[in-house]
Amino acid sequence: MPVFDVAILSDFRYPGGTSASIAAEVHAQAEAALSTVLVHVPSPHQPRALPFSPRISDLLRDGQATLARADEPITCKLLLVRQPRIFTEDLAVRPEINAERTVMVLNQAPGDVGNPSRYYDFAAVRDRVHRYFGADVQWAPISSQVRELLLRAEPGARLTSTDWHEIIDVAHWWRDRDGFVGDVPVIGRHGRGDPVKWPLDPAEIHAAYPERDDVRVRVLGGGDIAVQRLGHKPANWDVVKFGAEEPQEFLRTIDFFVYFHDPDLVEAFGRTILEAMASGVPVIIGEHFRPTFADAALYGTPQDVRRIVAELYADPARYREVVGRAREFAEQRYGHQSHLTRLADAGISSRLSPVSPRRTGPKTPKRRVLMVSDNGAGMGHLSRLMAIARRLPGDVETVIATQSYAASVAHQEGFLTEYIPSRKALDAAQPRWTAILRARLAHLIELHEPTVVAVDCLPHPGVVEAVRDHPELVWVWVRRAMWQRGVGADWITQGKVFDHVLEPGEFGDVADGGPTVADRPNAHLVPPITFLDESELLDRETAKKELELDDRPAVLLQLGAGNINDISSPIARICAHLSGHGFQLVLAESTIATRPMPRVPGAKVVKIYPVSRYLRAFDLTVSAAGYNSFHEQIGFAIPTVFLPNTATRLDDQVGRARFAAATGVALTVEDPASGELEQVLDQAVRPEVRAGLAHRCRELTFTGGGAAAASWLSSLPENTWRMA
Length: 724
Hints:
The chain is α/β, with parallel strands linked by helices.
């Protein structure tokens, strides 16, 4: 008898959000190679002759789930029960299911504002579910709205601490848009026909969906209800029967998604709203949805719709900003990865890293990778690519193409290196720079004949155009996470052009509040990447000897390249404080610094790459919290005081440093201009504090991701590697 990862029990005939939610979770599970069995239990509230939802039929046809037979017992790791109204009466046949864990997903509230128990009696449903599946069932509301109303009906209900929220595959729904749909704004909405889904007051319908020549209205499903309440069909309305168009295609025909409903209705979640966000359509909804959609939606009353639409339609840049923010929110909070994470918390882990289908070609391989890096403020982009390249198998050739001033470093490390002058170096306008970068990449592709191009930089327009110019190649975006909250959504969107995303891990990933690509089906995550493995570090005696250090404690200061913020201001104070405690001072000067490191009496300045090879010589480091140095010092258990760079455009060094301090692996100074600097240094000079930091680092250390990234890159399906 097979043991399924997930069993989902429900009535699969529901035409709306229930079936859409189930289908989304089954898709996510299938992408992670998890097995799903569907257990159909008819609801007493559904017509007997109603067929399965097309969404459910499609996933069964495609083999993404198995339909359970009524006469066979089911064994699974997790049983998800959906739609509590199934249990408003005793089941005619009790399904035989043996599950390690059972979760009842409360995707509908017991009632509404006027009657908290209008749809079902929670206590009666709970008693039946416990009788069928045991008293250990976990009760998980789908949203804060359902939670609130359920507790109003049954104050003593024991619910999970977190909601079992909806999920969506943004990549499936997203459509790139080239301007507005027509010459006037197009307002629309979609959903099943239900009277409670529309405002009761005709004046509110008129306000939300105006009858005017300077706007069009499209309605997919339920439009006849609104027409009946208005008493006529407005001339500018296009009413489409539910099911006549696919929601994905319908959403491409509107500019704004506007949704208002019966004031007594408590919307369980608002899946159609999420679908609009994922499709790139701004949504205008009531304030009561804010707990679910935060700042990703536009809020108001029906009377505000006309003003909001007019303002956004007149400001395309702001329109795009709203779209990008909503898309980022949908991916981050409700993407597939959020579902896989909660399954992992239940002990059900993905069996593979999801990958996209590959293009076919001749079987005889020519294995060459072109690695392209940004210039950056430091050497993070280039170092990550070199960390991967130096671990690739011997039969995979590597060409490094970089905009960094440190191209000579890559050459010294033994890589065939090409230099691409950056936009800053050329002082070029954006259109000229786009053309230059596109042409330069085309030349390198023709010259070196790679089959895979790995890009560790932002997807600049020149890069995006190069990807589209060369669809015969496999393009991988090496995308460092931990971006700052609220920025970079446009880059995430542009990154859709890549075949794969390779994401180097973050020790502080739980503190990552920025946009994410981790939930994309073509994303592959590896542990944090460092240029060196711990075994490659020099031993303490050798490192001290090569740096000409004596037996006194030594501190290494590496505060970055100095190309973003002024690193000189805190250095004198740090050096004075630590030298006063008997520390030898070593200042690491970046190989790409545009101005020299300030000279401090008694301090040694070194300009070596990689400086991490010498880390065992030091009893303490004072460092910026860039990706490379952060993971090297924590991974190699070097006591560290982090001074996060606050002037970076994307990199959230503050979040990274705060997480390190919170977990006890490092100390952090967020305001070096204040007395906080000396207070933290006073802690760092104490041997017992440094020993505690090193001990904590060793407890929480991680394996190097460079080898894992190289292994993944070199083990792409055989037909990835084609003859040039």
